[in-house]
Write a structure and sequence with these properties.
Layout lengths: L4 H13 L19 H29 L4 H34 L3
Length: 106
């Protein structure tokens, strides 16, 4: 089986163009109450991180098919990397806080 890289990249890019990677996910229900403000904030941050990642992937795939603006690709990939580093840092802090709570005497 002879698979050409350009054909694979074109198929991947056309699959990505089927959905708009820059569209935002619907905002969580604001009428759920004030107790869920924190969870809404977390959901919103996760949705934004996912959208940044999808946009970066989309731009990279488009650059494989139609070489063009390398600066846009680098900017998108850097943005996705910074977003992922922020998500990992928040995750580490949450795990650390949870472990501190577990160590508290009852």
């Amino acid at each position: 089986m002879d698979v050409k890289i350009a054909n694979a990249a074109a198929a991947y890019a056309s699959r990505l163009t089927g959905s708009n990677p820059t569209s935002k996910v619907a905002a969580p229900d604001a009428a759920a109450g004030s107790g869920s403000d924190f969870s809404n904030m977390i959901k919103s941050a996760i949705n934004e991180a996912e959208a940044t990642s999808r946009t970066s992937e989309f731009i990279s795939a488009q650059a494989l098919v139609n070489p063009g603006d390398l600066g846009a690709v680098v900017t998108a990939v850097s943005s996705a990397e910074v977003t992922m580093q922020a998500v990992i840092a928040v995750r580490d802090k949450v795990v650390s806080a949870y472990q501190d709570i577990l160590r508290m005497p009852i």
